[in-house]
């Protein structure tokens, strides 16, 4: 009887541990809004691998904290494409920024330039605000 209980508890504990480990490494995010159209549509769900902002590369789509805009509600998490990382030249469309992207900053863009807040409108984003890199649509 004791052996049967132990064999039932061990797989359940292993499954619970696996869930904890997966939640620390991955995140599922719902896409809202048209800013990443046509790549990601409003209502899509994406699988995100948690990474630090200093590990991202140009071309990757990231989930990151939006900037705090004066007299506006916080934007929450945003889905954007990284176009420049520290040490890269700052593109001409980013106004008021130094010639090179400084440490701890990123240039990010929406795939749909007509929609969304990105580096064209608010400048550089903090790399510390990166939650992770999008792996795939679910």
Using brief descriptors, characterize the structure shown.
transmembrane helix; 138 residues; alpha+beta; Peptidase_S26; hydrolase; transmembrane
Q: How are the SSEs ordered, and which strands pair?
A:
Elements: H1 2-25, E1 26-30, E2 45-49, E3 61-65, E4 77-84, E5 105-109, H2 119-122, E6 125-126, E7 130-137
Antiparallel strand pairs: 1-2, 2-7, 3-4, 3-7, 4-5, 5-6
In whole angstroms, the N-to-C terminal distance is 42 Å
Q: What percent of the residues sit in helical stretches (DSSP H or I)?
A: 10-25%
Strand content: 25-35%
Judged by helices, strands and strand pairing, the structural class is alpha+beta
Helical segment tally? 2
Largest sheet: 7 strands, antiparallel
Q: Could you state the order of secondary-structure elements as H and E?
A: HEEEEEHEE
Average pLDDT works out at 88
Low-confidence stretches: none
Shape: globular
Spatial arrangement of strands, main beta sheet: 1-2-7-3-4-5-6
Record field, number of beta strands: 7
The whole-angstrom Rg is 19 Å
Main location: membrane
Membrane topology: Single-pass type II membrane protein
Domain Peptidase S26: 9-90
Pfam families: Peptidase_S26
Briefly say what this structure is.
The protein has 138 residues and is α+β, with helices and mostly antiparallel strands. It has two helices and seven strands; from the N terminus they run αβββββαββ. Its main location: membrane.
């Amino acid at each position: 009887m004791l052996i049967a209980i132990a064999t039932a508890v061990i797989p359940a504990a292993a499954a619970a541990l696996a869930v904890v480990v997966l939640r620390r490494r991955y995140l599922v995010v719902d896409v809202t809004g048209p800013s990443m159209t046509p790549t990601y549509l409003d209502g899509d769900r994406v699988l995100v691998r948690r990474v630090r902002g200093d590990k991202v590369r140009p071309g990757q789509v990231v989930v990151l904290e939006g900037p705090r805009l004066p007299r506006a509600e916080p934007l929450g998490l945003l889905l954007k494409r990284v176009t420049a990382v520290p040490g890269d030249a700052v593109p001409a469309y980013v106004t008021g920024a130094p010639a090179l992207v400084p440490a701890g900053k990123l240039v990010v863009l929406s795939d749909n330039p007509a929609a969304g807040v990105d580096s064209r409108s608010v400048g550089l984003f903090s790399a510390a605000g990166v939650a992770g890199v999008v792996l795939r649509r679910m």
